[in-house]
Amino acid sequence: MAGAAGIRDAWVRKQGGVQKQGGQLTDQQDARALTGEVLRSPDMSPAKCAGACVGYPWFGLEYGTQCFCGLHLGSSSENVRGYECAMECGGDSDAPCGDADRLNVYFNPNVRHIKNPKSVGNYSAKGCFTDSQSTRSLSDGVLRRDDMSIERCATFCEDFSFFGLEYGSQCFCGNSLSGKEVSENQCGMLCTGNESQRCGSADRLTVYSLNQKGDQASEKKKVSADLKDEIIAMFRIGKLKFRSALRMTRSRWAGPT
Fold first, then answer.
1. Structural element, H or E, at residue 240
2. Half-sphere exposure of residue 218, counting CA atoms within 13 Å on the CB side?
């Protein structure tokens, strides 16, 4: 049975002050079940992971020392039997912390749903896109801050057609967008400067594009600047021609010396 399809309806019980989901899931490095914050610690425990994932409705423990947070469960994850997720937690020998590519998953139904604004200034939400360090989907500007938000990134990229947020604290700008559009759930990391917003994930960009009105305003601004430069150039040319004509006139009136 697919994890994302069936796990929400499974039984839930209290454990250690958090809501424990009665299920275990497969996980993959290239297709994570949970795409939010990641914490690795030798003294990992369910309580420690819950503390690291405040603001996320889902968290999971893997391989004894790893903690993953998420706004959604990845659709490719599958339920597995409990004995496949029986590795002891590094900081709590009485609690299981998954195994290799296996997650013990917890769910907190009290966490609010996170939904990004559809528009910010002259930009409109475009979706979640792939990215990589070797081939950036947006390559004309970059900003990294611990207080990142969608609004901050939009301001930084105001002279570009696109901006995108990645891994919670990174902002990228560009006039062209490469990369592939993927499910919005893959952009599941909260912004470091506003935990009510999503800011992409690892190799995933939350992208906004300049809307038509913004395009027109930008083009008008460009035309105005070009026109100003042209007027200045014409004035200078005219001034040079006037000076040249004046010199010729003076030379004629002065006659031969």
1. helix 212-254
2. 17
Q: Is the pLDDT of residue 17 over 80?
A: no
Domain ends where: 59, 81, 107? Answer: 107
**Same domain, residue pair 7 and 100:** yes
pTM: 0.72
**Overall domain count for the chain:** 2
Predicted confidence (pLDDT) per residue in 133-157, tens digit? 999 999 999 999 999 999 999 999 9
pLDDT band of 112, cuts 50, 70, 90: confident
Q: What CATH number is attached to the domain comprising 135?
A: 3.50.4
Judged by average pLDDT, the poorest of 46-55, 147-156, 164-173, 239-248 is 239-248
Range of the domain at 58: 3-107
Which pair of structure tokens corresponds to residue 164? Answer: 């995108």
CA–CA distance, 45 with 91 (Å, rounded to integer): 5
